[in-house]
Design brief:
Strand order of the largest sheet of chain A: 5-6-7-3-8-9
Distance between the termini of chain B: 33 Å
Structural class of chain A: alpha/beta
Shape of chain B: globular
Number of helices of chain A: 12
Shape of chain A: globular
Low-confidence stretches of chain B: none
Radius of gyration of chain B: 20 Å
Low-confidence stretches of chain A: none
Oligomer: heterodimer
Strand content of chain A: 25-35%
Helix content of chain A: 25-40%
Amino acid sequence: MPQITVRQLEKVFRVAERQPGFWGAVRSLAHRRYREVKALHGVDFDIEPGELVGYIGPNGAGKSTTIKILSGILTPSGGECQVAGLSPWRDRARHVARIGVVFGQRSQLWWDLPVIESFDLLRDIYATPTKQHSRTQEELADLLDLEPLFDVPVRQLSLGQRARCDLAASLLHRPDILFLDEPTIGLDAPSRLAVRQFIRRQNKENGVTVLLTSHDMGDIEALCERVMVINDGTLLLDGPMDSLRSPRYRERRVVVEFEEGETLSAEHRALAEGDDARAEFRVAENAAAFVAELSARYRIRDLIVEHPPIEEIVRDLYRSARG
Amino acid sequence: MLRPYVAVLGARYREVLQYRSAALANSVVQLFWGGIRLMVLGAFFASANADPPMAFAAVVAYIWLGQAFFGLLPYSLDPDIQRKFLEGNVAWELLRPVNLYAFWYARTFAHRVADTTIRMLPLLFVALWVLPWVGLDAWALKPPPSLASGVAFAAALFGMAALATAVTMLFQTTLFWLVSGRGLQACMYGLISLFSGLLVPLPLLPQWLQPVLYWQPFRGLGDTPFRIYSGDIAAWAAPFEIALQLGWTAVFVATGYAVLSRGRERLVIQGG
């Protein structure tokens, strides 16, 4: 029995159109024109208990809209969806007691209060038994290293600290289902890794179902066995991680800055874009071996290995679907 | 059942108390304006030809209490909730397993009351003790005439806070449509100042207006508790007055609740 079912989900936004200029503004006071934007048309999927599913797509594809509908914040324009037997927007209050949600760009903590007071408030709002709450809080503080942050007002936290506190806040009431919308956005590398590891543990050890969106393919690849790709409000692909088999997807972009005085060999120069100071390579397979080869041969000042951006993956998927 | 609402009330209280000095500064301003209003009304009373409709001592109490409990009046929206609308964080409020109206009501109530508890203390201290001590006894606030009046006043004051919160909530729910509350706040200011009695005590307004003034909702935001305090409304008549106040509160709660449900359905959260 799937825990989450989504059938023919649709969402249409009505956007007021402004005419440019002063007279345009005056005219639109009396006479508003609206444009309809279809954020979702006909999305279908099922998620089983304990799955960890990645949900990717370019900006404006409908990821966040899906998550907002699933978490009961938005009412869809059409279609059905059920989460653990409840309709998120019709049974909102009962539904939200059982899910945890993180929107990476927003905080759910009380701005002027110390972190610990926000946690206490959440305990009362979710009516969690005090004993269970302190046990969960201790566990989370341990995993995410929150202890030193407890007495700091939220407004004084750094982005990474706040992200960790937000993640903990979404789990304090021990939800079975987590919706994470860009939980790693804007985080530095260590925080990002800590958050990833934490999500994995919640899924593996506590069997929490996770639906995760991210703009960083690294997150998705590190965590998810199943991935759904959405573009323009429809699912382009839903399958195991391996199904993103496009050669583009396995490709890595290696950007290297060399120490002064280095000259590239003819063989490398043919592969590279750039010059002897800074070169970019597109490596189809085994980037690690390639990096090893470069560092054995040249003195390197700096080096970055990048995943192909999601936009490119989606473009490739499109192309292969059209044949 | 009530635990989430009590908790949020307490938290809001602690948040507001962080801005103590602003509240104290405000209290000085209130004191100053109270003095000016009293002097103006005193001049009118001194030169009145006919019998005034209210004893001067009752007017003095009316003015000082108006200044002391100014913060309870629904002049402003809860800044925290306004910010949530602007920044799109209303979403979080919908992620809580609570009734949104009750949740915000508790919070707005705490905002109103917390502010006022700090502001009223210095002002009441001056009006009750300092003024008689420096020989301005005629301008000082006297205690209520009887214990019954005092108890009724406490109840009416609570009613005032409940009604003010319900009115604020109704204005707040329009944020689903308006985004910014500034224009509305400006309109509210004039309307509520006049009809609550904060501008001029309602009994001093023209006789032919009195029936209208009696039945309109904003009277419970000042006139009712202040006149119960001074005994201008006798203690035996107070229960009916308080019932009227609570009746209007119920009307505003019901309307606000309905508007909030409508607003929630059309909610759009942009970005992210």
